[in-house]
User: Fold Sodium/proton antiporter, CPA1 family from Citreimonas salinaria.
Amino acid sequence: MDIVLITTVIASLFLVIGAAEPLAARLRLPFSVILAVLGVLIGVAAIFFLRTELTDALNPVAEAILGLPIRSNVFLYVFLPTLLFQATLGMNLRRMLDDWVPILVLAVVAVVVATLSVGYALSWASSLPLAACLLIGAIVSTTDPSAVVSIFRSISAPRRLARIIEGESLLNDAAAIALFGLFMGFVMLGIPDPQLGDALARFPLLIAGGAFTGWLAARFAVWVMAMFARHELAQISISVALPYLAYIIAEQSIGASGVIAVVAAGLTLNLAGPGRLPPQSWANLREIWDVLAHWAGALIFILAALLIPRLLEDARVGDFLLVGVVILAAVAARAVILFVLLPLLARLRLSPPVERPYRAAILWGGLRGAVTLALALAVTESFRVPDGIQRVVGILATGFTLFTLIVQGTTLRWMIGRLGLDRLSPLDEALSRQVVAVALQTVREDVARTTENYELGHDIVRSEAKRFGDRLGAAVKSAEDSADILDRDRITLGLIALAGHERDSILARVRERTISSRMAERVLSDADRLIEGARANGRSGYQRAARRSVAYGRAFRAALLLHNRLGLSRPLVQLTADRFEALLSQRLVLRDLGAFIDGRIRRIHGKRVAELLHDLLARRVEAVETALEGLRLQYPGYADELERRFIRRTALRLEEREYAAMRDDGLVGAEVYAALTQDLDARRAAAEERPRLDITLRRPDLVRQFPLFAELDDAVLKRLGRALETRYVNAGEIIVRKETAARSAYFIASGAVELESAGQSWRLGRGEMFGQMAILLNRAPRTEVRAIAPSTLLILDETRFRRLVRRSKALRDAVRASAEKRGIAPEDLFAEFAETAGSDKAY
Assistant:
């Protein structure tokens, strides 16, 4: 075929894609549905002009359209990796983990159930062999990510609903395509009734092999991209190669799932990329992938739609009855998962509950598209599949896809409206009024400065100021006098606004590089949880999300267990360093929120709400300071290094701003500016490197690190090391309770504790001790001791501690100093001891 003609057809398809988006907006229909309709019309028109005798002038164009090299491998190897990879790069993984149970249930369990449901229903209703029926079930189980995600984004669906839909549509392709490969093999081998258990047993191997391949490829790609830190185009080029190579290696070399490999590679790059690449490079990389995915998604839809007339060409009446069977079986299987299994898991507290309107929207939003057609096309192209099966697979898959796009796709917006998911709640309406009021106040201030700078006419300024002031007054009054908003709702609105401003502050700090890109996703996710927590449960939801942002999660506890039991320190080092930096970032942002409360929220919601928000903010600051102090006491030098790093990065940002200002003022030329920024980039790369955190602790080193034991000789230290018991405690754990009989003295090898007695509290860190007073005074303590950071304690029993006090003058001096701080006479502690060291050696 003439290459010029093919190029012309493809360029024309891009024109169609460009026209489809504004057409979809005008008709208020999903973009993917418009593309599918246009593709079908183009395909029908090409067939018509080839077969009609009206004119032969358009025959070359029709032949070029129908002769496009559209094969299943083009969809699976060219377009699908692009769509899946971009979707993973755009996901907020931390927020997606909040709903990982329903996402996995829909992406894996629902696919298996739908495959079996459709397969056995077709086997009952037709004469097809069971293997072919299950193959059709696997094909129609794939919800199309480009169709589903674009529709739910276009209708402004609730965030949580969109997250669940996006996660399901991304991951269920992998499960369905893996099942497709299994049953396709049975059909090509001529096995009519496969052993289902044997087939499903291979399923985990396909998943695991693909996941490992994608992870390994992405880790290597990130390592290479980090080496090319100053070459942004090289980094983008490597990212473009990554999904395709991961897909091909998994499919062709390992025999695993290429789709899983692409998803794993995208998730790995999503997690590792922001911390290893410069912020601007990472932002540009994601923008490039957004454009590539837009083109790929549009082309895959329109090219797949071109095939629909040919796939339905030999359809019979009985085939449409089977399409009805497929529709009923697929919808019934999805309904069972959504309305039976998910509520059951929520009742058993194995999954967060998914609201009923959300489940109804998910049921109707399970659209099929180009992926389903591509799999059907792969069956029709295989010469090893009998002709009768090829025909039925093509017709059933195409008919079901058309039903989901034409019927479900066009009515999904209406369904969302009927469920009330597109309407603002009274709280959201009040929030919108608040936003208008706050925005207009800011605009008034900016306009006032602008009129002063340009020295505009006094009468004009006065008339426009009056007009604007009337609008502002009406907006503020509407926000203040909402009769249907209770006081608790005003508090909720204030918390949502506060959390939203916190998120904006984080984004500004990330752009300024005050907060590193490594921490950006984490602190932004915490801010999103604050917004959603306040929106869902008001003050309690906000406080719960705030506590979670400073809490030690399951991952940290697992890392601590690996460190303690197996000696694997790397995960704990990484998580501890991340926690240090996240807490410093939180403290930086929280200190600026008080001005927002006084400047914005007080104007709209009044003094009482503002004071309450100040109180909640003060508690958050105290919680962050407590957590940070615990880490400071645990690793005193590391906090200093992080703060020095912050100062260096701030200085570099200010230096860069000065260079840019000089360039804009014409004081330096482009060559000088390039040389200056090149040197600045080199220093910034060094400043971005996070200092290394050393948490390695060994028993002899633990003993030697205490100044209290410095005067003891090696033999005594060795015996003492054997006598000391090591105990690991997590943050929040109570170590000593009030009125508990004293039996041991505690030495803090790492971590930090807080002591509380008689309404007063104080903190101790690495190298300090507690419990000694109760032993020496021979009475139950009136002090409660609680860990404020994961801590390693060395414990010495009462008898050995008394012997150690006799031997160590440094220890006696430390005990004496501690007693004087608490107002205890040292004579009361050492009455039973001689001032000279005893001769006890049994430690």
In short: The beta strands are 725-729, 734-736, 744-750, 753-757, 760-764, 769-770, 784-787, 791-797. The chain has four domains: 72-418, 446-642, 643-688, 699-830.
